[in-house]
Amino acid sequence: MKKSKLLSWIAVFISLFLLILPRLVPICDGLTKTGSPMTCHYTYQAEFIITLLAVIVSAALLVLRTNEARLLAGFIIILLGISSILLPQPWAIGICENGSCLKTTFFLTIGAALLAVTGAGVVWTAWGSSKDS
Amino acid sequence: MTVQKFLAIAFLIFLLGIGILYTGVNRVPFRNSKNHEHHQSNLLTGAVALNSSRDILITMLTSNINMISEHKKRS
After folding, report:
1. Which helix (H) or strand (E) holds A27?
2. Contact A53, A16 (CB under 8 A)
3. On chain B, which terminus has fewer CB atoms closer than 10 Å, C or N?
């Protein structure tokens, strides 16, 4: 298997893992006194959309043939990975101080960092191939 | 697979994902929502069981005492 194809499959699997992460490691399921969901609920709703986009862009790497397109897709995967890490930060949306969402965020940060590294790998391989051709 | 076909499938997957997000399948259900059944704590269940068994014991003892006193009256 070519290196670029392997990186594409790795990106797809990491994105799918991040997509189902709140099911595997549940976030806080309680409501506040006013009856509204906690902050982590909104963070992980936003995370779902970002990881859904990451799944689509990662899957696109399996279809795209030109180096420019692969370069752009890899770059977008890096940005999506960084966005996933930043959303639980208190200055973005944030999570609860003492909730089960802390554990989810731990795994999310690791997964999103790996996704960003994989995107960087895709950019690296596409960059090298475009220089050669 | 062509890029056009991939884009069509990707758009459908995106719409499906938004539907999943709307229905809340992507996360665990809220604990104290109206549709969710509240489970009784094991400690509470134990306390209820203890109270009911104590009541039964008291009833049995008092009925025995009554029976004994009636027996004594007869004798």
Report:
1. none
2. no
3. C
Q: Are A104 and A22 in contact (CB under 8 A)?
A: yes
Residues A87 and A43: beta-carbon distance below 8 Å? yes
3-state secondary structure of A89: coil
Tell the burial category of A17 from Cβ atoms under 10 Å away from its Cβ (0-12, 13-18, 19+): middle
Region for A123 from its dihedrals, namely left if φ exceeds 0, alpha if ψ lies in -120 to 50, beta otherwise: alpha
Which of 36-55 (B) contact A at CB < 8 A?
Answer: none
CA distance A69 to A94: 34
For residue A33, the 8-state DSSP code is: T
Q: A112-132 pLDDT, tens per residue?
A: 999 999 999 999 999 988 777
Question: A127: which residues sit within 8 A by CB, 6+ positions away?
Answer: A71
| Residues found in chain B | 75
The residue in chain B having the minimum alpha-carbon distance to the alpha carbon of residue A36 is B33
- Give ipTM to 2 decimals: 0.87
**For chain A, where are the alpha helices, taking DSSP H only?**
3-24, 39-60, 67-86, 101-132
**Which of B14, B29, B31 is closest, CB to CB, to A52?**
B14
Residue B34: strand, helix, or coil: coil
Per residue in A67-101, pLDDT (tens digit) is: 999 999 999 999 999 999 999 999 999 999 888 89
